Amino acid sequence: MEPKEISRRNFIRVSGLASAALCLGVYFPASAKEEVIVSKAAADARGIEMNAWLQIDTDGKVTITDHRAEMGQGSFQSVPQIVAEELEVDLKDVNVIFAQGNPKKYGSQITGGSSTIRGSYKQLLHLSATARTVLIMAAANKWAVPVSECYAESGNVIHKPSGKKFHYGELVVDASKLEAPKEIQLKKISEYKLIRKPLNRRDTPIKTNGEAIFGLDKRLPGMLYAVVERNPRMRGTLKSFDSTAALKVPGVKKVFKVQMKVYDTTRDGVVIVATSTWAAMQGRKALHVVWDDSGFEHVNTIDIVKRQEELLKTSEGISFKTQGDPDGVLKQSSNTIDVIYQTPYQAHSAMEPLNCIAHYQPDKIEVWGPIQAPDWIQGNLSDEFKIPKENVVVNMTFLGGGFGRKAFLDYPYEATLISKEIGAPVQVVWSREDDTTQGPFRPGIAYRCQGAIANGEISAIKFRVAGQNLDHWQGGKRDKPNSSTDEGFVKPYFNSIKNISFSDINFELPIPPMWWRSVYASTHGFGYESFMNEMAALAGKDQLDFRREYLKDERCQKLIDRMEEVSGWKSRKKNEGYGVAITECFNTTVGQIVKVSRHTDGKVKIDQVWAVMDCGWYVNPDIIRAQVEGSVLMALGAATIHEITFKDGLPEQRNFYNYLMPRMSDMPPVEVHIMENTADAGGVGEPGLPPFSPALTDAIYDLTGNRIRKLPFDMNKV
Fold first, then answer.
1. Same domain flag for 697 and 713
2. Both ends of the chain: CA-CA distance in Å?
3. Are 375 and 504 found together in one domain?
4. Are 486 and 397 contained in the same domain?
5. By CB atoms within 10 Å of each CB, which of 319, 363, 483, 497 scores lowest?
6. Same domain, 71 and 106
7. What is the SS3 string spanning 490-519?
8. Which one of 429, 458, 473 terminates a domain?
9. Structural domain ending residue among the three candidates 429, 450, 474
10. What one-character-per-residue DSSP string does 511-563 give?
11. Cα–Cα distance between 314 and 345 in angstroms, integer?
């Protein structure tokens, strides 16, 4: 594999291969319900702009255009693994390039919602199988033999009776002239040689030897460097600045005001442009700025929490979903529970801080960087700068983590503004302090959960949610509930619980909220599944058996069986605490069991985590295990170590010295099990996070009798 950036000229050249290569892609005819696979030659003849995902040249080299970002989730391994399986080629012969932003060609390119594989695996399978089929057809034509006598293997087409063979490169010219067949036979799962195999990731070597190009590594001729001193309170404005001292710093070229759009408002800042990032940073230190922060509330965390609690006690909120009559049942019940759970604000803290290179020209914009949503960026820059979309080029590099933050529009927009002002390409780099303090943040959310038990069974459940609503910040109507109010809650619950409701309480603050790994499920999972554990206790039942009663569909029953089996749930010992949670997001259900005990030093420690994932069809079990392990560690940090708190409207945490990260010694043993079935693919990169915190707190309750309802908490103090 040679995963490298590709210039616009080379991209056009590679994508334009026709007579010298087999180039297959898909297009979306208005009259068809599904996409159609065509060759490049056929597409040109029909005047069709197709999505050119797959090319094979005369050397037999396969090139895949990956339309999604690679930010650590493994798409540079899993996408080639899919293609190589159905195409019958060796993985070492597969090259991967990043697609440029172009939703007309590629559809959605957002790398979020764990959608890379689940959103495109069927296309990739059919595309690869189609390429294999037309190559076999081309070989059969050359030999003048029936297609049924030929098969593909290791980049060759072989004639069974004679043993004659052509390598793919010898067939691509003829194959490119053939009409792609409409009916393709895909392999059965039992026939897979590569898919579902724990193959080593092919991007690991280049990411460890320095060859991989991340956003911070990218360089352009004549490029300048910039940092921005932004108002630490987003709604504040710039009153004045003195650049005298900054301009005396060697290498500093220019200092000026910039306004970065953040949702429907702006964040004022002062740009320092220099010949190096270091010079720009030194110039920033010498800058003198006066802000005007009047006219809006300066929030404090203690007040945020109190306001959420008060709203949960006094407001019914906006109904999201109701079935049955939970209010009526709760009023008449004597065996009830009414509790509040609270989760904190969080920063994204990706390993690679935000950065972006932009080159603005009067008739063209081109950007490079760690970008999760190239199609969104292309559309936004086109709209904001009144330049046709086809003249806005968005180039993806590798991402050093994203977690949703690098799908936002603000930082490429700001870089483009700066490039326009200075008339040159510029790389804008955010410091770790910028990244930590300026957000947008995962919103802290509070939950009021009420439930009733009658005769050992759930008779009613009522959930109310108070937290910032991303829908509102993205232009949604204030009288509508959060569209993700029940995210994380396992859908089969609705089939078994007759009286249940969810409502969203409008909660507005001058703090920009943002997606975070597993989005709302990362917080909802704690509230909803912690409450299910409390309901089990109120009913006097085992937590896992309790879920078995209400998650009655076959896949959930098998998942629970597996959880029970791998954890030794039925043979739990005294002085050991076991906790359980099951959550669902992005079409994947994950159950986790956490085991804790009090060690000789008196502290409660995590001894083991068992995670069982049902993601349907999947590619690489090693990637799944890595993603679940990473999710557990990220969830552990958010549950027990770090949070963003506000004082006088300012985040109190600035860098890793007070926004602490989990250390290697904090990582518990994690055992990951994958359910085998033929269901459609679900997500992998995010669903492993939500069940951890409720399973952990349930385990602590099981051991100590102490019920934890507010995150984060200190493991050393339970």
1. yes
2. 49
3. no
4. no
5. 363
6. yes
7. CCCHHHHCCCEEEEEECCCCCCCECCCCCC
8. 429
9. 429
10. S-B---TTTTHHHHHHHHHHHHHHHHHHHT--HHHHHHHH--SHHHHHHHHHH
11. 23
Residues 286, 311 within the same domain: no
**Distance in angstroms (rounded) separating the CA atoms of residues 497 and 502:** 13
- CA–CA gap between residue 599 and residue 630 (Å, rounded): 25
593 Cα distance to chain centroid:
24
pLDDT of residue 653: 98
Predicted confidence at residue 10, as pLDDT, reads 42
Same domain, 16 and 41: yes
pLDDT value at residue 290: 98
Query: Do residue 48 and residue 132 come from a single domain?
Result: yes
Are the C-beta atoms of 132 and 87 separated by less than 8 Å? yes
Q: Which two tokens stand for residue 696?
A: 């952990």
Pairing of strands 224-230, 265-274: antiparallel
Q: Which CATH number does the domain housing residue 711 bear?
A: 3.30.365.10
Q: Convert 207-244 into a string of H (helix), E (strand) and C (coil).
A: HHCCCCCEHHHCCCCCCEEEEEEECCCCCCEEEEEECH
As given in the structure block, the two tokens for residue 191 are 């026939």
Q: What stretch of H or E contains 358?
A: strand 355-361
Backbone angles phi, psi at 501, to 5 degrees: -150, 150
State which residues form the domain around 54: 8-196
Task: Determine the Cα angle at 154 with ends 151 and 157, to 5°.
Answer: 30
Q: Which two tokens stand for residue 370?
A: 């760690």
Which residue ranges in the chain fall short of pLDDT 70? Answer: 1-19, 27-35, 41, 43, 47-52
Cβ pair 536, 542 in contact under 8 A: yes
Dist. CA 586–CA 614, nearest whole Å: 11
H/E element, 368: strand 364-369
Specify if 211 maps to a domain: no
At 52 the pLDDT is: 60
Question: Is residue 213 in some structural domain?
Answer: no
Tokens 């109010």 map to which residue?
485
Helix, strand and coil content of the chain, in percent to the nearest 5, comes to 35, 25, 40
pLDDT at res. 234: 87
346 close to 443: Cβ distance less than 8 angstroms: no
| DSSP letter assigned to residue 605 | E
- Residue-level pLDDT at 5: 47
Distance CA 480, CA 478 (A): 5
Dihedral sign computed on CA atoms, order 98, 104, 110, 111 = negative
Structure tokens at 412: 């490429």
Residue 128 lies in a domain: yes
Locate 121 and state its tokens.
């695996």
The count of structural domains within the chain is: 3
Residue type, 705: G
d(CA 41, CA 176): 7
DSSP 425: -
Task: Render pLDDT for 18-41 as a digit per residue (tens, 0 to 9).
Answer: 457 899 887 656 555 566 787 776
Quick check: is 52 in a domain? yes
Q: State both tokens at 662.
A: 């989990």
**pLDDT score of 31:** 52
User: Which residues have C-beta within 8 Å of that of residue 647, sequence separation ≥ 6?
Assistant: 300, 301
Contact by Cβ (8 Å): 364, 387: yes
Q: What pLDDT shows up at residue 6?
A: 42
Q: What per-residue confidence (pLDDT) applies to 49?
A: 65
Distinct helix (H) and strand (E) counts, the chain: 21, 28
Both tokens of residue 525? 């999972």
Predicted confidence at residue 427, as pLDDT, reads: 98
Cβ neighbour number for residue 200 with a 10 Å cutoff: 10
The answer to whether the CB of 198 falls within 8 A of the CB of 260 is no
pTM of the model: 0.94
pLDDT for position 50:
63
